[in-house]
Amino acid sequence: MNDRNSHASFRSGMSFLSLMVFACLLLLGSGCASKAVIQPPVIPPSSSTGPDESVSEILFSQFNAWKGVRHRIGGTNRQGVDCSGLMQAIFREAFQVELPRTSRDQSRMGQRVETGQMRPGDLVYFTDKGGDHIGVLVADRTFLHASASRGVTLSTLDAYWWPRLRRVQRVLS
């Protein structure tokens, strides 16, 4: 009788463990993107930003408002945010521009820009660790994004990020 209870308890524990492993794999596989493609027009920045305030200054201000927010897959607010949720919130708050929810859809917004023509406000789209990742250029070679390990942060297009850069899109004219 004791062996039978031990065996049933072991099987129940294994079922739970299998379910947890499946849930983790599902979350890891979801990343920040889906497969849909959207090609809307380039949208000019809103006139509600002051005439003396540059796009770079606005984005640094957004960074100051968001820094310290932790990364959370599927997150869209200051309780936790993922890369595409951050871009969606920043563009809505700072420029009154609505972006799609996923990084892949966001990476197809506006017009494609050559890397030599990048400027603040351009979306920078990466493939990182097998998944999609997106940020916004704030200044020359500096971009704002939600890092899985550091939360909302500024990074440089350095030896790590530069080779992973796949596309630059201009959504602000």
Automatic annotation (TrEMBL):
Keywords noted in UniProt: Hydrolase, Protease, Signal, Thiol protease
GO molecular function: hydrolase activity
Annotated SUPFAM superfamilies: Cysteine proteinases
Pfam families: NLPC_P60
Top-level taxon of the source organism: Bacteria
InterPro entries, A to Z: Murein_DD/LD_carboxypeptidase, NLP_P60_dom, Papain-like_cys_pep_sf
Domain NlpC/P60: 53-172
PANTHER family: ENDOPEPTIDASE NLPC-RELATED, MUREIN DD-ENDOPEPTIDASE MEPS/MUREIN LD-CARBOXYPEPTIDASE
Family statement: Belongs to the peptidase C40 family.
Protein name as annotated: Cell wall-associated NlpC family hydrolase
Organism expressing this protein natively: Desulfomicrobium macestii
Biological classification of the source: Bacteria, Pseudomonadati, Thermodesulfobacteriota, Desulfovibrionia, Desulfovibrionales
